[in-house]
Amino acid sequence: MKNILGWILIVIGLVIILGDIFVSYNYFTGKDKFPEIFKETVVSSITPSSASNTTINTQQQLQNQVSENINNSIKDQLNNILPSSSISLMLNASLWSLFAFFLLSAGAKLAKLGGGFVREKKEEE
Questions:
Q1: What is the DSSP annotation of 63-96?
Q2: pLDDT score of 109 more than 80
Q3: pTM of the entire predicted model
């Protein structure tokens, strides 16, 4: 009975390992998309219109416009250097790598446990 259970555990462990390798290969070669745990969000800021508030003096308006222009140019430069979609892609790839490592470890433990049952049965004979 232990011999059969040992072989079943070895086969289950190998199926987990090979399936994980196959799925990871497809993800990292671009054939499939990573599971989207982290999704990119679009953040928009609402600026008050100058027509609604006519009591603001021109100096304050100029300061607001300069500040807004600087913020927009910084956002544009950051998006050129590191697009927001690449951050979520890196996080999803990292999370998949951790999960794949867990699956490989679990498959190896199952196969090792099954190998122990098979060896134990052979030593009894």
A1: HHHHHHHHHHHHHHHHHHHS-HHHHHHHHHHHHH
A2: yes
A3: 0.65
